[in-house]
Amino acid sequence: MISELRLPVGGVVSAMVHDGPMTELTRIPAPDGVAPATGYTHVVMGTGRFVAISGQVALDEDGKLVGENDPAAQARQTFENLRRCLAAAGATFDDVIKLTYYVTDMAHIPAVRAARDACISPDRLPASTAVQVAGLVRPEFLMEIEAYAILPE
Q: Which residues pair with 100 in a beta bridge?
């Protein structure tokens, strides 16, 4: 549901999306004076238990690389690893408030977004940051993605 709310620090946010009592997350896709986001939400806030998921890479459950030189395959495996880590904490992608993408080439971002969009509804997009890095812990990794989530108390 979209509603107008007054924040304690003052000012009116033009549009807020509150996801309801289960997650207690509120998304602000376009705060006043900030250009609307494309493919992410500017602000996500909530109450509950904080969950931090370490950066995940494209290793399968046996520790083998998935998708050598294939950003789409690596992105899918990385999101599968994130899903499994979230599940271990009792969370789902619906609980994610922030994703940080570390990529060795910004040309990999469309593959990352496609994998993300297969896991996360477009009306529940988290806050996001994408950073191009010179390298990751192993040269065959094209990306590493970390997540923050909030679970209900």
A: 129, 146
Residues with Cβ < 8 Å from 33, sequence gap 6 or more?
Answer: none
Task: Kindly give the pairing relationship between strand 43-46 and strand 12-18.
Answer: unpaired
Per the CB < 8 A criterion, the answer to whether 141 and 102 are in contact is no
Predicted model pTM: 0.83
Distance (Å) of CA 47 to CA 9, 23, 95, 100, 150: 17, 8, 11, 21, 7
Give CA separation, 51 vs 26, 96, 99, 141, 147, in Å: 17, 9, 12, 24, 8
71-101 burial code (b ≥16 CB/10 A, e <16): bebbbbbbbbbbbebbeeeebebbbbbbbbb
Amino acid at 91: A
Residue 129 CB neighbour total at 10 angstroms: 11
Contact 74, 103 (CB under 8 A): no
- pLDDT confidence bin for 13, thresholds 50/70/90: very low
